[in-house]
Amino acid sequence: MFRPMPSVEGVKRHIEKSLCLVWLTMASSVSSSLPFLCSSSSDPGPRVALITGCSEGGIGHALAKELAGRGYSVIATSRSASSVGDDLRSQSNVEVVDLDVTSSISVSSTVSSILQKYGRIDILINNAGVPCNAPIAEVPHSLVEGTFQTNVFGPISLIRAVAPYMVEARQGKIVNIGSIGGFIAGPWSGIYAASKSALHALTDSLRLELRPFGVQVILVAPGGVVSNFPKAAVSVIQNIRYAIYKSYEQDIRTRAKYSQSSRSIPTPIFARKVIDVVLQKNPPRCFTYGYLSWTYSFLYFMPLWLRDRYFSGKAGLDKPLGIVPHMSGVSTKIT
Ligand SMILES: NC(=O)c1ccc[n+]([C@@H]2O[C@H](COP(=O)([O-])OP(=O)(O)OC[C@H]3O[C@@H](n4cnc5c(N)ncnc54)[C@H](OP(=O)(O)O)[C@@H]3O)[C@@H](O)[C@H]2O)c1
């Protein structure tokens, strides 16, 4: 049979194709036998999560347990490592580290030693937080400062320490634990709500700023979840001596325990839901769950007069000036 002679161009194309095929075959066999040569496609071990505020009984503790159960290497941090609890400490893929989020020096040294040891941080959860339930006109300045130091400046320090690494790695998730109180604020919770609103705003900006680098930012706004929060809330306000709001002292204390009711969500259930959401390929920008989260979401879209009526009724602030009913029903005159 007659076969036409190949042209010079045809021969060149054939040689190029063959060389290309040989190169691809070599590259794929080299990459599978020497994984360190192609770091982007290799799996350098378990994923690493860094969580703040992991004291036993709280949300951070439950999130750490949930992620450890899903095979993550978890760095569970807390102001005092002893508060983390043996159940978490005894897990082989959990490392417990002391970290006070208000110390930017300790934040940056902790993050760099994690990166040195594990070589990566895949998830950062800014969970540590403190309550502050006191009337704005009488709240001590030190309490205001402490609340913002922990709830706002702390997360900023962690983001500033971790984000450059995630940007370089072109992947990662930053989860900020806000609050439904950051959506709408009622009486006695203005300072706490302001700190959480600030964190929500930071989260919105950060989400857009890090998106081009493949880093996802998620706001988790818990409603009522069973934790140590009310204990902390009552203890931070116990030494305040009110003048204007003396008659409301009991209402203020009651507000401090507001997140805890028989309908508050147990931390393991809350943590499972949150981690399900966070580990999605495309997680939602904001996730809210817990007691009263639906009520607050509804009120968020309502006119201010309706919100005011809801909150002032709950706080005992809807009565005529001068006569203030106690929770017990006894009336006290403001002098
Ligand atoms: N539980 C709720 O209903 C609810 C609702 C809305 C939002 N949240 C938010 O959820 C997060 C977790 O709170 P939680 O309910 O689990 O209360 P929690 O049990 O009191 O946990 C708060 C954690 O933050 C830690 N922390 C406080 N200051 C810190 C600091 N300077 N450095 C490092 N850690 C610090 C606490 O450590 P110590 O044990 O040393 O104090 C504790 O581990 C908070 O951000 C809170 O605002 C909770």
UniProtKB/TrEMBL annotation:
Which Gene3D superfamilies does the UniProt entry name for this protein? NAD(P)-binding Rossmann-like Domain
> Which family is it part of?
Belongs to the short-chain dehydrogenases/reductases (SDR) family.
Q: By its UniProt entry, which SUPFAM superfamilies does this protein fall under?
A: NAD(P)-binding Rossmann-fold domains
Q: Name one GO cellular component term.
A: endoplasmic reticulum
Q: Which SMART domains match?
A: PKS_KR
User: Which CDD domains does its entry note?
Assistant: 17beta-HSD-like_SDR_c (cd05374)
Q: Does the keyword Oxidoreductase apply?
A: yes
Q: Which residues form the Ketoreductase domain?
A: 47-228
Q: Name one Pfam family in it.
A: adh_short
Q: Which UniProt keywords apply?
A: Oxidoreductase
User: What protein name applies here?
Assistant: Ketoreductase domain-containing protein
Q: Which GO terms describe its molecular function?
A: oxidoreductase activity
Write down the PROSITE patterns for this protein, in alphabetical order. Answer: ADH_SHORT
